[in-house]
Amino acid sequence: MNIEINRILCPTDFSASADHALDYALSIAERHGAAVELLHVAESSTYAADPVNDQGQTYDDTLRERLQAMVDGKGDTDVTVTVNVVDGTDYVEIVNRATAWSADLIVLGTHGRTGMKHLLIGSVAERVVRTASCSVCTVRHPDHALESEKG
């Protein structure tokens, strides 16, 4: 079987788990000659609170700079990486972007929440896995043990 991966969507919330998932996405992209899109989903309320900062940048611009800094921090790579910011509900916009961009794979970090925290907070990764039309790779940060393992 020949699996072709040409486009990898890598959503981020700027957490250590998401940064670790970006490492995975870049590694997979290198092996397959794929492009990566690093995506951040911002909530509408954030835009309303700070539409333009004192340097004349929109919140969108600030987020794009943070995304580009993440990419630049990964060092020299032959992978084509674009950054994108969209407004909306995280898991909905991740799935929508994957569909619109014809992503072959979504690579995203998971925080490993279990029990009551998972029930109350929910899981973006779980919702993406259930609703995405392409394959999804969830990546757990090695330093984040499951709460049940912490004792």
Explain what this protein looks like in three dimensions.
The protein is built from seven helices and five strands; from the N terminus they run E-H-E-H-H-E-H-E-H-H-E-H. With 151 residues, it is of the alpha/beta class. The N and C termini lie far apart (42 Å). Strand 1, helix 1 (16-32) and strand 2 form a beta-alpha-beta unit. 44% of the residues lie in helices and 21% in strands. The chain is globular and about 50 Å long.
Short overview:
With 151 residues, the chain is α/β, with parallel strands linked by helices.
- The low-pLDDT segments are 117-121
In total, the number of strands is 5
General form:
globular
- How much of the residues is beta strand, in percent? 15-25%
Q: Helical segment tally? A: 7
What is the top-level CATH class of the largest domain? Alpha Beta
Domains (count)? 2
> What strand order characterises the main sheet?
3-2-1-4-5
> CATH homologous superfamily of the largest domain, by name?
HUPs
Instruction: Give the distance, in angstroms, between the N- and C-terminal Cα atoms.
Output: 42 Å
Mean pLDDT, all residues: 84
Largest sheet: 5 strands, parallel
- Write the element-wise H/E pattern from the N-terminal end onward: EHEHHEHEHHEH
Kindly identify the CATH topology of the largest domain. Answer: Rossmann fold
